[in-house]
């Protein structure tokens, strides 16, 4: 049987089709620019001889329903999914599950209503995610649809980690608390780390760092998330591509009072003009590293602030976890930037983290250890695979 994974955004749908016995990717791609005059459809698949093939076409795709229809046609055309009856399940990425969802969930009318109720917590993401579910139900009415939430993995955090020290009614009546995101990625690399360590996940204490354009750190105790750096929204925590991460909550009041900035401007400032971009004018870490190496002070500062924040979170989570088996790097930056890994871990030797310079800088796209053989805490680089995790969780939910 096969599993289709959909990640539906406001103007795009990304997809991957897996065979569920060995998790081979049969096809993948996206429809982007939905609603624009020329939407782009991309599909890659392996033909009967195993040779990679691809197709691309441009045509107007007015809405998500036609976007998904186009994906289904492409999958039929390539032979990857000749008959939709071959589908065991469709797995949907849903960004926010609030407190309602602790696990992947089989979608029915009631579940759709609950996802709708959570929209105020993720107004930019959940409506598009829900749209994807609604059109998939229409197009594949007999196939189970499973919602997999970015927040679900973090629902095991204790109250002491998820509550903010603000008036109680804000939590009780308005859901203001920390939820955490990137849960699918932290869960995936956590499980892979356990396999590499040769221990059951439930016996592992790990710090996982998902470092991409968005970035978050998670403390995992005995297989469960006990703390994470993102909060009620994905703005809290580490320095990101264009997001500030942690700042004094009084900064927006100050800017509002003294510069007359309104809420929307402040939100845009902290979400889209801050982070690496705000510090040095670039948010592509490769370019920032190149500039820093050439002596550019702003780029050097951006790397320094990012590594300093990372180190603070690693230290905090070491203190929370006590015994720690491994520190895991993932995401575009975590997987590829030896420089940032080295900066984040520098000086942590007395806390049990010792990087091996040669292993850290060796070019590789594989799962690997980059710590010194005698490092008490292993440092691992594990490429994330959120689609595979969603596919697996979808199958678990239907069986
Ligand atoms: P993601 O959001 O996971 O796709 O990650 C995007 C980030 O990864 C961007 O800041 C990229 O500059 C960064 N990145 C990708 N490849 C490399 C690389 N080889 N070295 C350093 N950073 C990289």
From TrEMBL:
Keyword flag Transferase: yes
Compartments, record wording: Cytoplasm
Active-site residues annotated for this sequence: 150 (proton donor/acceptor)
Protein residues bound to ATP: 14, 210-214, 284-286, 332-336
Reactions mediated catalytically: acetate + ATP = acetyl phosphate + ADP
Binding site for substrate: 93
Residues involved in Mg(2+) binding: 7, 386
Cited InterPro entries: Ac/propionate_kinase (IPR004372), Aliphatic_acid_kin_short-chain (IPR000890), Aliphatic_acid_kinase_CS (IPR023865), ATPase_NBD (IPR043129)
Site (Transition state stabilizer): 182, 243
GO molecular function, one term: magnesium ion binding
Functional pathway: Metabolic intermediate biosynthesis; acetyl-CoA biosynthesis; acetyl-CoA from acetate: step 1/2
Quaternary structure and partners: Homodimer.
Official protein name in the record: Acetate kinase
């Amino acid at each position: 049987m096969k599993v289709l994974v959909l990640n539906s955004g406001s103007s795009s749908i990304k997809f991957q089709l897996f065979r569920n016995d060995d998790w081979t990717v049969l096809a993948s791609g996206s429809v982007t620019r939905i609603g624009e005059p020329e939407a782009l459809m991309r599909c890659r698949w392996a033909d009967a001889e195993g040779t990679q093939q691809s197709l691309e076409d441009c045509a107007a795709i007015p809405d998500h329903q036609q976007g998904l229809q186009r994906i289904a046609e492409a999958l039929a055309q390539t032979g990857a999914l000749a008959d939709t009856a071959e589908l065991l399940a469709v797995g949907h990425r849903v960004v926010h599950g609030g407190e309602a969802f602790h696990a992947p969930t089989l979608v029915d009318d009631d579940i759709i209503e609950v996802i709708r109720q959570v929209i105020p917590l993720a107004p930019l993401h959940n409506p598009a995610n829900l749209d994807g579910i609604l059109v998939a139900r229409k197009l594949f009415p007999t196939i189970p649809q499973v919602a997999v939430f970015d927040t679900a993995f973090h629902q095991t955090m204790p109250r002491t980690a998820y509550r903010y020290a603000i008036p109680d009614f804000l939590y009780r009546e308005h859901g203001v608390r920390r939820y955490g995101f990137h849960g699918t990625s932290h869960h995936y690399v956590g499980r892979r780390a356990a396999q590499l360590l040769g221990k059951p996940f439930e016996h592992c204490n790990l710090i996982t760092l998902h470092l991409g354009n968005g970035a978050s750190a998670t403390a995992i105790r005995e297989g469960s998330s006990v703390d994470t750096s993102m909060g009620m929204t994905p703005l809290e925590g580490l320095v990101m591509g264009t997001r500030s991460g942690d700042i004094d909550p009084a900064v927006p009041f100050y800017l509002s009072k003294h510069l007359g900035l309104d809420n929307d401007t402040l939100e845009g400032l902290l979400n889209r003009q801050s982070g690496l971009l705000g510090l040095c004018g670039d948010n592509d870490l490769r370019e920032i590293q190149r500039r820093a190496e050439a002596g550019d002070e702003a780029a050097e500062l951006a790397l320094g602030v990012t590594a300093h924040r990372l180190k603070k979170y690693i230290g905090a989570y070491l203190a929370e976890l006590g015994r720690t088996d491994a520190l895991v790097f993932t995401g575009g930056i975590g997987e590829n930037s030896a420089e940032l890994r080295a900066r984040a871990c520098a000086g942590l030797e007395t806390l049990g983290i010792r990087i091996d310079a040669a292993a850290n800088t060796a070019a590789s796209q594989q799962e690997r250890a980059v710590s010194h053989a005698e490092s008490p805490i292993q440092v691992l680089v594990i490429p994330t695979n959120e689609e595979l995790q969603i596919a697996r969780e979808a199958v678990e939910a239907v069986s």
